[in-house]
Specification:
about 110 residues, 7 helices, mainly alpha
Amino acid sequence: MGAKATIMSIEIIDKDICPWSGLVLMWKMMDRMSLIEILSTAGLPEQGSNHGYSPEQLIKYFWVSLWCGASCFEHTEILREDHTLKELFGWKRMADHKAYQRYFNKFDRAIQRQ
């Protein structure tokens, strides 16, 4: 009957991959909507330490964690160790789950009403 055979080529490549590499589209969306600029004008609570992450960075890291399936603070640790994801977003380091908890504890009703 003339069935056409499909040949599949399998090869080993020297490139990093991760299950979240499709997030490059999300990265482009956040960049196109100027997310950092929007967050910088939102009146977010400031960090008390010069060594800490900026509020905008923490929220961006946290959103990426949520989009990758994190359902609690501890799940963010999985992404923190993903070198390919950090390279994809251009991040040198990512916050640990305690940094998110400390930062989100700074929000209170007075800050939320502003």
